[in-house]
């Protein structure tokens, strides 16, 4: 915590940064007792970097293509993150699979937002996969990050109906609106010391959340 008792947060992005913006808005409104110490992107010239700059948040670009291995990229990323001494690392549309060394280093203090009702549809292209499967519902999950891709303990989920004429784009837009609610809420719970991870279990106020987490209606 810094002198004004705000939780230091570092946010990792790869693109638009609308989830980053939702967290920035919560910080600026006073709803979230946090200070975003840095935003780090693996891609240059993305809108998320503009959003950070507009909020006077320091930014870094660490291009994964400039490293000889995933491990080398992750080590540079860790060194940059740790300069800011965050209590929480937030993956907000960060599109790189992280090594076990990296995820272990931040275990219990790194969260990700994933556009599916985990454990369904880990990985990419989740909206189209849900439509192709004929699912009646889809949604988003916030989870602690572990070495298992999108397999960490789920904290909170939001569910949306899949309509008859749904496309991946329309479904993504519906889900994104709920992402912008459940992600800041998760950050707030963590900043208020209400959210913890024990073993492979997320706890809210000391009570274990079930495998689908807190259901956001
Ligand atoms: N070890 C972990 N790493 C990451 C996790 C995690 O839970 N454990 N969450 C992801 C976020 N994510 C989905 O929510 C995700 C991100 C990226 C990929 C992926 O396949 N990336 C490819 C490149 C894809 C691209 O550049 O478009 C890759 O890294 O080779 C899958 C899921 C963040 N990391
Ligand atoms: N596998 C990770 C993944 O697909 N994450 C998804 O990327 C989008 C980022 O949007 P944003 O940059 O506007 O926050 C969000 O929908 C998030 O769930």
Automatic annotation (TrEMBL):
The record marks 150 as: Raises pKa of active site His. The active site is at 114 (proton donor). It catalyses: N(1)-(5-phospho-beta-D-ribosyl)glycinamide + (6R)-10-formyltetrahydrofolate = N(2)-formyl-N(1)-(5-phospho-beta-D-ribosyl)glycinamide + (6S)-5,6,7,8-tetrahydrofolate + H(+). Its EC number is 2.1.2.2. (6R)-10-formyltetrahydrofolate binds at residues 70, 95-98, 112. PROSITE patterns: GART (PS00373). InterPro entries: Formyl_transf_N, Formyl_transf_N_sf, GART, GART_AS. Keywords: Purine biosynthesis, Transferase. Residues 7-187 form the Formyl transferase N-terminal domain. Pathway: Purine metabolism; IMP biosynthesis via de novo pathway; N(2)-formyl-N(1)-(5-phospho-D-ribosyl)glycinamide from N(1)-(5-phospho-D-ribosyl)glycinamide (10-formyl THF route): step 1/1. The keyword Transferase applies. It comes from the Bacteria. N(1)-(5-phospho-beta-D-ribosyl)glycinamide binds at residues 17-19. Belongs to the GART family. Catalyzes the transfer of a formyl group from 10-formyltetrahydrofolate to 5-phospho-ribosyl-glycinamide (GAR), producing 5-phospho-ribosyl-N-formylglycinamide (FGAR) and tetrahydrofolate. PANTHER family: PHOSPHORIBOSYLGLYCINAMIDE FORMYLTRANSFERASE. This is Phosphoribosylglycinamide formyltransferase. It comes from Sessilibacter corallicola.
């Amino acid at each position: 915590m810094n002198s004004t008792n705000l939780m230091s947060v570092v946010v990792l992005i790869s693109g638009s940064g609308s989830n980053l913006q939702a967290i920035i808005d919560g910080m600026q409104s006073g709803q979230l007792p946090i200070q975003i110490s840095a935003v780090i992107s693996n891609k240059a010239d993305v809108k998320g970097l503009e959003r950070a700059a507009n909020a006077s948040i320091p930014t870094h670009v660490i291009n994964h293509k400039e490293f000889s291995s995933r491990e080398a990229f992750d080590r540079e990323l860790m060194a940059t993150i740790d300069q800011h001494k965050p209590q929480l690392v937030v993956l907000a549309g960060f599109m790189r699979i992280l090594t076990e060394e990296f995820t272990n280093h931040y275990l219990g203090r790194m969260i990700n937002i994933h556009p599916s009702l985990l454990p369904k549809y880990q990985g990419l292209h989740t909206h189209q996969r849900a439509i192709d499967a004929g699912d009646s519902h889809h949604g988003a999950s916030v989870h602690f990050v572990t070495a298992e891709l999108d397999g960490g303990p789920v904290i909170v989920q939001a569910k949306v109906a899949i309509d008859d004429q749904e496309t991946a784009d329309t479904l993504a837009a519906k889900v994104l609106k709920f992402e912008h609610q459940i992600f800041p809420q998760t950050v707030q719970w963590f900043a208020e010391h209400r959210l913890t991870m024990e073993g492979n279990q997320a706890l809210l106020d000391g009570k274990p959340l079930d495998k689908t987490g807190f259901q956001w209606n």
